[in-house]
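sry for the spam today, last one i promise. struct tokens for design, 540 residues
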């Protein structure tokens, strides 16, 4: 009997991972053999996110193929139309239930179903924990899932300190924990929160202080109230010795930055490599406070007193064994000179991913300092503020980027109002800024993906700076979807074919408002030119 490559499970899995659900849907219709081959991967993940109505036929199909189902996304759309007799899939490993609002009956029904899914490894839920019955049912459910190692919980309403503490204790054996607890007050509910009842505050604090170390490796947290951060977040952090990733999703008290820094300084988090800073509800935070946290994230092996032979003076010698690999900022924070210097001083030898895109504005001088001092960077996302009003050292234009191994770049180039009408080649300060940027980008010979964000015409032959990018021989993907004023013509397409020999994806701006020249030169001319030479290209 002739054996197909799809009869070998390992090879079939390697092939089907590149097929979309639409591809798999077509494959099962080819023949009986193809139906047998492709039905399991087709039903491996069921995503109801884009479903407005789930038909009876769809429910029946899920029942027929439930043994293949390992992941269900947007379970909240399936739950209301689920027949009572339907049992959960026997091999379900991942469940995501994230409704925009919740009800008591819905929460209890959901938790009863989840408890009957012993094979779950990853669970994402949105609940209202202000109800004691829901809270107790959740704790009971978490203890009943022996394989669960990843738990993501969202609650839009305020949650009491005692409830949060009990959830944390129930999750102490998990490797991944995300708690996103909102600050809205449920109608008609009196919470035993620390700001209402000092005794409940003390009970929660004592319980956290007595909790043993956890197995948590990835922690993302946002608590309901500022007073909960010192009694819940800080003790929890102290009990995560295996932590590899920390996401401070939302801090309601800026003093928590300092408390977190103290824990990082006091304890050894030798495996912590990835940090994400979210929003601060207290807008009074300063650059020095962010810098203090970045300093505390360094990994120190020893502090030795050594005597200098030249001046017979004592100096503290700090021997570094490593630092962060990933640093992300997901909010508008005061990230200025002190923070940049701390990042360079403490993490230059290890940092490979830097995401500052949410800052909105990063001064050119600070960006140049980072790019000239972080040689290990492979992924960079940053919004750079260009304009002649900035106090920029003229020598910045002579600073070469040290991170020439970058593979993924997302760059926002924002001009001040006075500089937005500049002309390429004019020699103005703004022109010098942009020419410097594109010259350095042209040196990134390992660059594979580039997303550009700008309202200025930049990627053009002659009137732009495209000629400076001829060295990007490995560029595979160029994303211009957020460049509304960049008007590509046939000559740009021909230039790309000649110089960017690896380009296979091009994403173009598709907004409603377009200039007259843009309308005169529709995208189909560019597409025709590119596809005539590279018919395999993806152009959108």
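last one done:
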């Amino acid at each position: 009997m002739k054996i197909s490559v799809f009869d070998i499970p390992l090879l079939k899995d390697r092939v089907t991972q590149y097929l979309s659900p639409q591809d798999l849907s077509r494959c099962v219709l080819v023949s009986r053999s193809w139906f047998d081959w492709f039905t399991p991967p087709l039903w491996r993940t069921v995503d109801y996110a884009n479903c407005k109505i789930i038909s009876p036929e769809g429910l029946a199909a899920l029942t027929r193929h439930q043994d293949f189902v390992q992941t269900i996304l947007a379970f909240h759309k399936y739950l209301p139309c689920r027949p009572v007799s339907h049992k959960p899939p026997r091999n379900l490993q991942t469940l995501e239930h994230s409704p925009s609002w919740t009800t008591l009956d819905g929460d209890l029904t959901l938790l009863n179903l989840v408890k009957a899914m012993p094979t779950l490894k990853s669970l994402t839920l949105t609940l209202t924990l202000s109800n004691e019955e829901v809270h107790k049912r959740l704790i009971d459910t978490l203890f009943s899932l022996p394989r669960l190692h990843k738990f993501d919980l969202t609650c839009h309403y305020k949650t009491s300190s005692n409830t949060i503490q009990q959830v944390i204790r129930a999750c102490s054996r998990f490797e991944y924990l995300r708690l996103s607890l909102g600050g809205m007050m449920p109608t008609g509910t009196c919470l035993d929160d620390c700001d209402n009842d000092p005794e409940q505050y003390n009970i929660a604090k004592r319980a956290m202080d007595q909790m043993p170390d956890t197995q948590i490796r990835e922690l993302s947290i946002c608590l309901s109230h500022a007073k909960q951060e010192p009694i819940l977040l800080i003790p929890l952090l102290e009990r995560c010795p295996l932590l590899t990733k920390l996401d401070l999703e939302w801090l309601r008290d800026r003093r928590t930055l300092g408390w977190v820094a103290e824990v990082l300084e006091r304890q050894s988090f030798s495996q912590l490599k990835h940090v994400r800073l979210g929003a601060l509800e207290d807008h009074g935070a300063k650059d020095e406070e962010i810098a203090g946290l970045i300093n505390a994230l360094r990994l120190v092996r020893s502090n030795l007193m050594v005597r200098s032979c030249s001046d017979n003076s004592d100096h503290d010698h700090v021997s570094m064994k490593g630092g962060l690999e990933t640093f992300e900022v997901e909010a508008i924070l005061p990230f200025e000179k002190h923070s940049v210097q701390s990042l360079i001083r403490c993490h230059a030898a290890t940092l490979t991913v830097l995401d500052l895109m949410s800052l909105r504005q990063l001064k050119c001088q600070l960006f140049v300092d980072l790019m000239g001092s972080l040689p290990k960077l492979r992924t960079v996302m940053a919004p750079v503020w260009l304009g002649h009003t900035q106090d920029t050292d003229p020598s910045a234009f002579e600073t070469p980027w040290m991170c020439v191994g970058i593979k993924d770049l997302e760059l926002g180039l924002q001009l001040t109002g006075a500089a937005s009408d500049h002309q390429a080649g004019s020699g103005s300060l703004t022109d010098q800024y942009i020419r410097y940027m594109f010259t350095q980008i042209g040196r990134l010979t390992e660059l594979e993906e580039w997303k550009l964000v700008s309202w200025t015409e930049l990627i053009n032959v002659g009137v732009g700076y495209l000629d400076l990018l001829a060295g990007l021989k490995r560029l595979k993907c160029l994303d211009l979807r957020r460049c509304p004023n960049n008007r590509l013509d046939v000559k740009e397409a021909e230039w790309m074919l000649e110089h960017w020999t690896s380009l296979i994806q091009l994403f173009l701006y598709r907004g409603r408002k377009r200039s007259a020249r843009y309308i005169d030169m529709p995208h189909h001319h560019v597409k025709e030119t590119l596809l005539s030479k590279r018919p395999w290209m993806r152009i959108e």
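The domain at 385-540 is CATH 3.80.10 (Leucine-rich repeat, LRR (right-handed beta-alpha superhelix)). ok im logging off now
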